[in-house]
Write a structure and sequence with these properties.
Layout lengths: L13 H18 L2 H18 L3 H9 L1
């Protein structure tokens, strides 16, 4: 098996990314395990930074 430290999301559709973000949020809220919310926030923060837009604008883009 080939080892890797990072995974590229270049080929992921925006619908799949939105689903992952929403699933992390839902799971974090339902289980009260903060790691899920922290991961969700980290992903949104990083992707919005790469897109050079606010986190709110990034989420609106994904939801369109």
């Amino acid at each position: 098996m080939q080892e890797f430290d990072k995974i590229s999301i270049q080929e992921m559709s925006k619908n799949d990314m939105l689903l992952i973000i929403k699933a992390l949020e839902y799971t974090g809220n339902e289980t009260e395990i903060s790691d899920f919310i922290d991961l969700r926030n980290s992903i949104v923060e990083e992707l919005s930074s790469l897109s050079e837009i606010s986190e709110e604008a990034f989420m609106e883009y994904l939801e369109k």
